[in-house]
Amino acid sequence: MAVVQTTAIDELDVRLKAEYMEGHWITGTQEEVERTYTINPFTKVKPYLWKGDTVFECLKRAGESRGLAAMSDRRTIRLVNPAFIDDTVRRNRTTCHTMQLCVQLLKHGENASSHRHNFGAFRFVLEGSGAYTVVDGEKFVMEPGDLILNPPMVWHGHGNEAGTIVWIDGLNFPLLHLLQTTMWEAYPGEIQNITPESDAIEHWLGHVRPVWAAKDREIGPLCYKWDAVYKTLRGLKSSSGDAFDGVALEYVNPLNGDHAFATMACWIQMLREGEKTRTHRHNHTTIYHAFRGSGTTMINGEAFNWKEGDFFIVPSWAWHSHANPSGDTEAILFSMNDMPTMEALKLHVSEAQ
After folding, report:
1. Is the confidence at residue 137, as pLDDT, over 70?
2. Mean pLDDT, range 271-293, rounded to an integer
3. Backbone angles phi, psi at 54, to 5 degrees
4. What domains are defined for the chain?
């Protein structure tokens, strides 16, 4: 029987582990080495396309078989990246490592009780109208194409006195889970009281503002109405646009022009009839929804053909381009990305092919 010889370094490794330490000379598997010591950033996130027909069919079934339940009192379906679907920890089953996209349905007569949390959130309305969300006491009526911001740690809830409505929930809680800083609190009641109309945020952010408004006023809840956004898209349709993203707009903070959230941005972009963008890559992740039209996005050489209602994800550092093959119909993509996080850390990098 062979005798296993131990060396001084083997004995040291055992001692270090017993004392909850480890030598830097322990390199791990070859796969770990290749992922760490490389000029190209590694991500577990996989490119994927969720068919809207399937998502909405499942959401409709949830509406027929399930009420508002669970701690958050919401009826939502979460889009989970294939890389994370088998994770045994629920909060790790997310759309990507920093952001989560969900689709929510609220039926006539339902009220989703208020709560608050320290991660940012937004609603992008897909179908239905007349329902409302209350954010920090302000009531916003929801119409298709509207984007409503929900800043961190403000009370928010939803109500519906109209027909069934569906919207996207975008959140950055995966990042906060990673940082182990997540906070969540239920409202001491159902839905918060509505503030007076004179306190509406729109009166404080326009081209004309109250003279007594504080110059350093922080942004609160905010609604970007679809009619105004689409008017801007149409107005810029004949411009040169962006070589990589077409006629792309970012929803910005109207007080300072910054991103909508400190760690998360929202975009809307038009791909004009027959438009094909250049290929590039960057180290932020983007989650898309095909709001209007159809097209193809190439991701690392693979074609992802999307149509209205679909969702897809472009992982960080993936080569990608978009195309709208239609000769008579524009395509519009709504998206969320974590570029602000990369910028805040002074890590953002992009390059063209």
Report:
1. yes
2. 98
3. -70, -45
4. 48-188+196-352 (2.60.120.10)
